Amino acid sequence: MTMVQPIALASDRVMAALKSGLELEFGRGAGEALAARFLEAEETDIRWDARARERWVGAYITQEEELELDRIVATGFLDGRWFVGMFIVDGDGNAHGMLCCRTFACDEAASQAFTQMR
């Protein structure tokens, strides 16, 4: 049986579990602050994994000729907010960096930014 749920529900569940686990480990009230620090430190990978849609924008030119990277725009939902970001991604689908990221209160605004970002 396949279970499908909106990305918003999965994101909220993951963030709640992260905060809860951190509070168990480090005490009441520490979960939210530590989760924010964790998100900041691993922002590129976490946002890349939370993406709901993506589209190729173009090649990313580096000094290293043996590494071919692409610029990918992605949108998703994380910690109660929609986001649109520009990611640097290799041919295996691994994010190597994030050039920019904006957050939005609603899906419509994020979708509009997603289609306009180049």
Note down, in words, how this protein is organized.
42% of the residues lie in helices and 34% in strands. The termini are far apart. It has 4 helices and 4 strands. It has a 4-stranded antiparallel beta sheet with strand order 1-2-3-4. α1 packs across α2. The model has no long low-confidence stretch (mean pLDDT 86). The protein has 118 residues and is α+β, with helices and mostly antiparallel strands. It has one domain (7-116).
Distance between the termini: 39 Å
Query: Order of strands side by side in the largest beta sheet?
Result: 1-2-3-4
Number of E strands: 4
Given helix and strand content, the structural type is alpha+beta
Q: How would you describe the shape?
A: globular
Contiguous low-pLDDT stretches (5 residues minimum) are none
What is the CA-atom radius of gyration, in angstroms?
Answer: 16 Å
* Biggest sheet features: 4 strands, antiparallel
| Strand content range | 25-35%
Number of helices: 4
Give the SSE order as H and E letters. Answer: HHHEEEEH
Offer a few descriptive terms:
single chain; alpha+beta; 118 residues; 42% helix; 4 helices
Topology, please?
Elements: H1 7-26, H2 30-41, H3 43-49, E1 51-60, E2 69-78, E3 81-90, E4 95-104, H4 107-116
Summarize this, please?
It contains four helices and four strands. With 118 residues, it is an alpha+beta fold. 20% of the residues are buried.
